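// run 5 | inverse folding | seed 20
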């Protein structure tokens, strides 16, 4: 239970920072980055969140249920705009892969120096 509380506190901290600063960034992602930083610096022990993280990962399919229900509810809208949605998915996936690859290449070169 303590591990879940730690994860939720970091999520809340990320959401609060986004609200306070007004930066256009998802608060949950910022909270995840803050948790990662805390884990990598040793401020939070990995053992303290490991059980909660394992539980959440084992039940990850439950978090996709609202997305599936939304797709069923809005199937007419999705059918009418399938080309634009498909193109946006392809372009954003390609851009994400490209940026991730370039960042990995940069970090690999920086780490070898």
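// decoded
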């Amino acid at each position: 239970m303590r591990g879940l509380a730690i994860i939720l506190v970091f999520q809340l901290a990320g959401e609060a920072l986004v609200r306070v600063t007004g930066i256009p960034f998802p608060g949950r992602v910022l909270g995840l980055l803050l948790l990662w930083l805390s884990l990598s610096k040793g401020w939070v022990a990995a053992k303290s969140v490991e059980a909660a993280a394992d539980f959440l990962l084992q039940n990850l399919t439950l978090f996709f249920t609202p997305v599936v229900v939304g797709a069923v509810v809005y199937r007419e809208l999705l059918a009418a705009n399938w080309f634009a949605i498909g193109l946006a998915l392809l372009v954003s996936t390609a851009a994400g892969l490209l940026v991730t690859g370039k960042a990995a290449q940069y970090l690999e070169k920086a780490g070898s120096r």
